[in-house]
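Quick start: what a row looks like.
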Amino acid sequence: MGAGHGAGTTGATDTAAGRHSGGLKWALAMTSTFLVVEVIGGLWTGSLALLADAAHMLTDVGGLFLALVAIRFAARPATPQKTFGYVRMEVLSALANAVVLLLLTIYILYEAWQRFLAPPEILSGPMLVVAVVGLAVNLVSMRLLHAGSKESLNLKGAYFEVLADMLGSVGVILAALVIMFTGWALADPIIGAGIGLFIVPRTWILLKSAVIILMEGTPPEVDIGLLERGLLDLPGVTAVHDLHVWTLTSGFDSMSCHLVVDDIETRRDTLIAAQNSMREGFGITHTTIQIEDAALREAEGETHR
């Protein structure tokens, strides 16, 4: 008998990713520049650890680029065919990043196994220099992306990749020092395999989060039982049904439900109270709430028996 709607469409500057696009651009510029240096260094020194780190850096570049593309798409206005615009692009970007990282890890582990069987000669000095520079680049990039990673799934994916790269650089430094002082060449494939394995749990979390959003699952931070009880506790509400809570994109949750009230004349007050409850208790501002008359619903139920 009545419906309430919260906020409408959103643009790039309204999304979590859009607010942090400046840091994303700087991180992309630095990472792209150093990627070339690390690939050359890895080929020159013969280090799998460096090449594994370069491979991760390549996915960093791809991930950061996709994140920026997602933000640009999110800026496009809604259309009659796409009433929410393109805000879900960031979720697709995060999903692509996770899949690429998992495939890349498989390749790195394969290459590490080959090097266990036949360890190549490695130039530890240049390897150490390149790794130290890479560590500095990753630390700066992490600083630029840290704030946005707390708000945006897209930026969280990019941050995880840079984090893995940073730890990879530390691993390469350790491998270079071991080879430099002991001559133990197997340190390189061991560190290379470790770099690949480290990112798997974090990548899995990212992949799972993206899939939950695409499947329109309940956001992990929302207790659906608590939310339903809060609605039932509103004055005059006798039942709640067709309750759904889902995420459109990071920082943009939505809720829809039907509220059955014992006095339809109070529907406006009930609607306002429900919207306030969602906003203040769960941070959900985009709501679609249908108010139904308990007497009418009961009469309709009798008719269908």
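That is the whole record. The chain has a mean pLDDT of 80. The chain has ten helices and four strands.
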